[in-house]
Each structure stands twice: as C-alpha cells, then as structure tokens.
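Q: What does the assembled structure look like for these inputs?
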Amino acid sequence: MYNHADLKDLVDKAIINLSYNTEAGKLIDPVKYILSIGGKRLRPVLALMACNLFSDKIDEAVIPATGLEVFHNFTLVHDDIMDQAPVRRNFPTVHSKWNINQAVLSGDVMAFIANDCFLQAPPRCTSKVFRVFNKAAIEVCVGQQLDIDFEKAIIVSEDEYLRMIELKTAVLLAASAKIGAIIGGADDKDSELLYEFGRNLGLAFQIQDDLLDIYGDIKVFGKIPGGDIISNKKTFLLVKALEIASGEQHKRLKEQFAMKEFDPETKVKKVIDLYDQLNIKAVTENIANDYINTAFSLLDKIGAVKERKKELAQITCSLIGRNR
Amino acid sequence: MYNHADLKDLVDKAIINLSYNTEAGKLIDPVKYILSIGGKRLRPVLALMACNLFSDKIDEAVIPATGLEVFHNFTLVHDDIMDQAPVRRNFPTVHSKWNINQAVLSGDVMAFIANDCFLQAPPRCTSKVFRVFNKAAIEVCVGQQLDIDFEKAIIVSEDEYLRMIELKTAVLLAASAKIGAIIGGADDKDSELLYEFGRNLGLAFQIQDDLLDIYGDIKVFGKIPGGDIISNKKTFLLVKALEIASGEQHKRLKEQFAMKEFDPETKVKKVIDLYDQLNIKAVTENIANDYINTAFSLLDKIGAVKERKKELAQITCSLIGRNR
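A:
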C-alpha cells in the first residue's frame, strides 16, 4: 500500500517526465511553468488512492492521474485570464508573465495533453475512463460559467451556490476518485461510491476554502484574511448570511457588498461582525461537516478492506482540518 | 454511395442535433452561434467520403466527423481572439459579439464537446480514432504558435512556412480522412494513404488560399484583394518572393512590408508588381499543383474501387479550382 507522500512523489515525477511536442518551444514553456509551481496534486493523489484501494498495480493509473492535474491546471490558466488574476500560488499567472494570447493557446494545448494522458489508461478501460473525465470537463466549464454569471447576480440562493461549486470543483474530485477506482478494477457500484465520495469531499473542501478566507491562519494559508470580502466575491458564507439575515442585517450586508469605494479593513471588520451576529462560522462548519460525514459513510460502504481506506480517510480529515 | 451534397447535409443535420449540457445557457449560445454561421464543413465531409470508400455504413462516422467540425470551430473562436479579428464569414466573431472571457470559455467547452463526439466512434476503434484526432489537435496548437512566432520574424524560409501550414491546417484534414477510413474499416496501409492524401490536399488548399487573397474573384471569395498584403501577413507568396528576389527586388519588397503607414491601394499594387516580376503566381500555382498531383497519386493507390473515389477526386479538384 502506498501512503500520501509516496503518491504525491509519483505524481510529481510523472509531471516532470511528461513528454511534449517541442517543435514550438514557446507553446510549452508556460505549460511547464504552471505545472512546476506546485499545488497539492490533490486530484491525481485522490485517483491513485482510489486505485490503490483495489489494486497494487497503481503504475497503470499514474499517467491518467497526471492528466487530471494537467486538466486542472488548464482550467487555472484560463480562469486566471477571466479573473484578471495577477498571482497564483505566489507566482505570476501565465497571462501576466507572458500575455493573454499565450495563456489562451498554451492553455488549449494542455487540454489535449490531458487527453493524451487519459488515452494511456489500460486498453480494457480507456473509453470508460475518458467518458468519466470528459463529462466532468464539460461540467467544470458549466460551473465556471455559473460563477461568472453569479458575479453579476444580486442574490444567489444557497442551492444555486452549492450547484456552482459542485460543478466547478467537486465533480473533478469525484471523477478523479472514480477514474482511479475504474483503473484499479473496482466494480460499477464501488466506482460510483467513490464518485460520490469525491463529490462530497469536493463540496466540503470548497466550503472550507470559503471559511479559510476569513478564519484561516495567515501563516498557513498565505492569504490576507477577508480577500473574498474585499473583492465582493460570492462565497458560501455570504450566500448563507443573506439567506438567514433579518431585514436590518440583510440591508447592512447588501450595503457593504454594494460599495464601490471603501476602506478594506473597515469593510472586512463590518462584514465579519455581521457574520458573527448570524453565527455564520458555525453554520458553515456544520454544513461542511455534513458533507465530510457523508463522505465517510460512503467510504465505509466501499468493498475494500478497512486498512486500505486509511489514506483516503486521512486526506479527508486533513482537507477539512479535523480528526475523525 | 453518397455524394458531396448528401454528406454535407448529414453533417449540417448532425450539428443542429448536437446535444448540450444546457445548465448554463450563456456558455452554449456562442457554440451554437459559431456552428450556425456556415462554412464548407470540409473536415467532416472529407471524413465521411473516406469512410464511404470502404463502407456504406457511414452512420457510425457521422458524430465523430461532426467532432472534427466542432474542434475546427473551437480553434477559430480562440484564433480570432489572438488575431483580434472582428469578423468571420461575414459575421461578428464570438469575442466581438460577446467578450474575450466568453470566447475563451465557450471555446474551451467546444474542445470537450468534440471529445464527446469522438467517444461516440464505434467501440472497436474509439481509442484509435481518438489518438489520431488528439495528435492532430496538439499539432494544430503548435502550428498556431509557429504562425504567431512568424508574425514577429523578419525572414521565414519556405520550409518553415510549409511546416507551419502543415501543422496549422493540413494535419487536421489528414486526420479527418484517416478517421473516416478507420471507421469505414480500412486497413492500416489505406488509412495511412488517406492521411497522406489529406495532408497534401491541406497543403495545396492553404497555398491556394494565399493565392486567392490576391488573385481571387471578389464576388466568389467575398474578400477585398490584397488583405494579406495590407495586414503584413506572411503568406506563401511573400515567403517565396523573398526567397527568389534579386538584391534590389528583395530590398523593395522588405520596404513595403516594413512600412507602418501607407496607402493600402498603392502598397497592394506595388507588391503585386513585384510578385509579377518574379512570376510568383505561376511558381505558387505549380507548387500547389504538385501537392494536388501527389494527392491524386495517393488516391490511386488506395484499395477501393475507382468508382468509389469519384467524390474525393472531385472535392480535390474543386478546392484547387481545376479539372483533373
């Protein structure tokens, strides 16, 4: 059995060893760059853990798992263009280091490099793996569209917000776990359980990410608290707060997010005060916990020995920062 | 056997009947738009003609063939961003009708809609078809990068230019013909012959396109003659002219393309004068003809009855505007 560190190491090496069509070097430089500036490699690690539940031959899953990371980074390169984001993981984004055209084109080729990785899944399941990936890929695009649409919307319901993060984030984690399971030889029932496990994990993970923006440790997360508040981003906290706020609180919250000019520190403080009055931190943590509990109960149902599930249980706890 | 018009009709219907994830309507509107504003559907028609050489069951090739058109239009949407092109086929480009972000994202989803079409190839050859497509897709990105690089280059050699158009245009026609052949049940030798046939056809087609910019009939092609000259675009004519020009002619030609401010009509006239002195029209036509002759000799070698090859021969003639 492989542990988390082993698997991340396998993925990192596979990323370094990816082979490229290098006839136009300028096309590939940004690809190598974005893939080299780190990240947790969560999607491929999840795929390999899911594979390892059912098989010790995880070698055949390494390249397809790498495809998930390449695809994820493709979405980051293009999302950063759309968000006009200057920085990603403390490094300049591709379009700011090069230019928008280069980010469009080098992003594009990453989508086909990812395809190539999935085509290297074992012949017995290549099409099946590809179908799971491709459905998720389309859904990720839909999720990004909803995210853009929501920026302009005045009110977004909790259900709408959850569906957006499900599409934008959770379905790719779900597909990652399912792809690993399929390559590992899982049956349809277990593959589907892993899909649902990944989906719940992804929802919890994204809600947790919204929480960390305000309540995270700056030393650990490297972001100034309240960045989402300052940039008027719709988060689960805001959506939930607007849903449960009384008339007066609702009005004050909307006022804060309607302001074009403001002192950032004051705004963050006022919004957090309102969140505190509404007990948003606990309400949000409870919902993230519900998803994590669902993920654990799905993990229990999967037909593999308990010992094998240890790494998936651990990564689930670590993502949400709790002990089981 | 199906004729050209039948096949184009099949493709047009398949495009109209494509099913989409419509959860975010704004994502799909530009996809429907770009696919609805026409075009010759050359790639899918070529695929279906190649399939029909070997089989009358072309139904199973229709959706994969449609994938080639969706992919081609994906490249147009993103290329138009990079070229800042306001108009395509006499209609506003996607980024000018919507905005750049929408063109990036709706373009992206087209790449995965194309994937979905290839996944609908018959199970006996899904992976094979996908591999042929995906290699071409990566090469098209490389070709676009070379095209961008060449814009800034002072001198581009004939070989470099030919390699660029091979990657940017010809390999997708080659892959289209090969994919059709594979689905039709052709053996490896015939599939490869069709790849080479498509590649030569594509090279001739692109060189012809460069010729038509100057010598084309405005009524037929809908473009003002000399657009490529006015926009300082590197074309086969320019590359070839710079290669064979004497010292003085070379200097005058470079001067024309170095000017930042100029009267368009005068510039077009002066460049055409120089092309005429160098006999560029005939030289270029000869080279396009060589590729067409190679395409015909490849077509002759393919193991299908002559009668079956009629449509492919006809489309080859029509692309280059000649009788066999």
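The two ends of chain A are 21 Å apart (CA to CA).
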